[in-house]
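JOB MANIFEST
job_type = single_chain_structure
chain_count = 1
residues = 306
[input]
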Amino acid sequence: MLHSPLGAQAGPFDLDDDATYPRWRAWKLACAPADAQALTVDLTDPRALSAGEREALLQRIAQSNTALYRSSVVAEDKDLPRALAAQLGLRQLDANWLADEDGVSQIRVSAESDGRGGFIPYTDRPIRWHTDGYYHPAERRIRGMVLHCVRPARHGGVNGLLDHELAYIALRDASPEHVRALMQPDAMTIPARADDDGVARPAQSGPVFSVDAADGQLHMRYTARTRSIEWKADAATRAAVACLEALLAGPMPGLLHVQLQAGMGLVGHNVLHERSAFEDDPAQPRLLYRARFLDRAQLPAEPPWR
């Protein structure tokens, strides 16, 4: 018999629950978006949602953990991500060390010596599959985010998106033992990062998949990076990581690619995402606003799959 490390209240994420998981799995696969348009909502102004716009965004987040939006608002308004997020219940902003004083990061190519220069989100290089804040401790778990495009790159900068719950399903279908391995509390360790004064961030170990005790929601902590990461040195973890990498490299339900244009963005939970390399227009360089949150969107208390 399979034994879950999650306890009896884990619902569909309990490896011992042979009744709940099939129902949830069938619902998730039925809701998997066929293309980016299926997740896209047209908004008049993301800063002031109508009741219908808000409902449409929350419906997509409830089904796929993220929603895309399209608007004609192209001004450089850093209040926009926070205003949009607040209307969906995302309010606990994570003020990370590279964010501006208001907690919103300006994602653009930077050569500055403030920590952004050379840090991969602030370059034109590709970013492999990851979830945000994978290097954070559990008490600073990134659960929600907004990524708003002010100006796209001249070429490239395409985002890959995948609901982390669909990744969980694919991995569990391949072998429940892969899920078990990646739920170990020491499955993935991010080594300490040192600065001129010593250790700027201590080493951080944790699982890839975990379930929040408060609401039973699945959280994923992952990066496909091969540097500055240490996987648990056992055969089960190595096999699980290899399987997950293979799944992310191939076609699977719900795996989407979208190039955000001016006025577009994504909002919702901390799903898997990647970014292709890009080429900037020197006169109009790529600019996105990113806001990350410690809470989730305000969804109905009763899950729609029950």
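[summary]
Residues 1-19+164-253 form one domain.
Residues 1-9, 113-117 have pLDDT under 50 and may be disordered.
exit_status = 0
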